[in-house]
Amino acid sequence: MAESPVRPWQEWGDEPDKKEDGERYTLTAVQVRAAAERWNKRLGEILHDPVEEQISMEEAVQEGEEWLISMRIGEGEAQGTEDGLKFVKAALGVGIQKGSSRVPLEPYYSFWTVHFSGSYTDAVLYLNAVTGRVWRAEITLYDNFLEELPCEKLGQFAERAGLQVTDGTAEINEEKTQAVLAAEDGLLYAGINYNNVVLGDTAVVEYTSRELLHNRYVVITYEILTD
User: Fold this and answer.
1) Pair 196, 141: CB distance under 8 Å
2) Which pLDDT score is estimated for 197?
3) d(Cα 168, Cα 52) in Å, to the nearest integer?
4) Pairing relationship of beta strands 134-141 and 178-183 according to DSSP bridges
5) How open is the CA angle 185-192-153, to the nearest 5 degrees?
6) Are 166 and 183 in contact (CB under 8 A)?
7) Does residue 84 have a pLDDT over 50?
8) Secondary element (H or E) of residue 217
9) Is 26 helix (H, G, I), strand (E, B) or coil?
10) DSSP, res 105
């Protein structure tokens, strides 16, 4: 059996956040930054089974469903036989970087990638494998478009990601397609990006094993940023 790229949780003498029975570990801002930075800069992934103190696939799917409900994603999906977004697949992995050593990493470097889909919405969520919190979400809308950046949801994303917001005022770019909210005294940031993709009148988008004719779709990305 191949050795896991991550090791079970190891408690150190200066560990500030102890786990209580039935509770998950809470990461420090430094640990969150290290894990997010490595994941954001990954060149690929190594898939693996959960180790001690990492959440299971069932827990990751449940957390993902709760996140979608709280963020009100896919509310317009109840059409015909469809009843909201449906779970498609999930995988647990750790990011690969150039020159990475083979020394097993701490378990908080792993992420669950959980995919949900519906009639006109696609959602890919990335959950930290120790905290179970969504640190990145890619929401693709093929209908029921949001016509502008949903900046009001950025603070909610940051809160659910476990970030302590430094200042409640988000910085929005001139085009109103990106917004950033400082957290953890500037050590981390919560970001949102709005991308309106126009394909042309005859473009065909492959979506949830069906071919639907679309000339436009919108991608909204929420994520933890390190710089």
Assistant:
1) no
2) 85
3) 36
4) unpaired
5) 85
6) yes
7) yes
8) strand 216-225
9) coil
10) B
Write down the pLDDT at residue 213. 52
Residues 98, 136, 39: CA angle, nearest 5 degrees: 15
Please, which residues bridge with residue 138 across strands?
A: 124, 221
- Cα radius of gyration rounded to whole Å, the chain: 18
Q: What is the pTM of this model?
A: 0.86
Token reading at 27: 């990461």
Strand partners, 216: 198
Query: pLDDT per residue over 103-162, tens digit each?
Result: 888 999 999 999 999 988 999 999 999 999 999 999 999 887 777 899 999 999 999 999
CA-to-CA distance for 77 and 86, rounded, in angstroms?
10
Structure tokens at 214: 């679309």
Closest CA to 135 of 65, 34, 36, 25: 36
Long-range contacts of 21-26 (CB under 8 A, 24+ apart): 24/53, 24/55, 24/130, 24/131, 24/132, 25/53, 25/108, 25/130, 25/131, 26/131, 26/162
**What distance in Å separates the CA atoms of residue 195 and residue 138, rounded to the nearest whole number?**
11
What is the residue type of 12?
Answer: W
Q: Which tokens sit at 213?
A: 């004719």
Q: What are phi and psi of 118, to 5 degrees?
A: -145, -165
